[in-house]
Design a protein that fits this description.
61% of the residues lie in helices and 7% in strands. It has 4 helices and 3 strands; from the N terminus they run βααββαα. The radius of gyration is 17 Å and the shape is extended. It comes from Alkalihalophilus marmarensis DSM 21297.
């Protein structure tokens, strides 16, 4: 796991890094655009990738996109990635003559 994937940043720091209010960050979580981890005490923890994602979301919102459009776009990208990964696995299996 890369340091960018580790969820160690609190919402206050994320707010400072992104310029977004804590309320707006929580709203993006409610809209299923970001998924922070929670400590046993309920504190949200974010990664550097989450910070980058929040900046991307904010930019898209400024450009006039709605949260449902951002989520739909993300789902399409994930679907394409799944298909690409499946194709690559098939090509590797064929190249190395791996049978399941």
């Amino acid at each position: 796991m890369s340091y960018k994937d580790k969820k160690v940043i609190t919402i206050g720091i994320v707010s400072e890094l992104t310029g977004l209010s804590e309320r707006k960050i929580r709203y993006y979580e409610e809209r299923k655009l970001i998924y922070p981890d929670r400590t046993k005490g309920g504190t949200r923890k974010y990664s550097f990738i989450d910070v980058e994602r929040l900046i991307d979301i904010a930019n898209k919102m400024e450009d006039g996109m709605q949260t449902f459009e951002i989520r739909r776009q993300e789902q399409k990208m994930m679907k394409k990635k799944e298909v690409r990964d499946k194709m690559l696995r098939g090509q590797l299996n064929a190249a190395f003559n791996i049978r399941k």
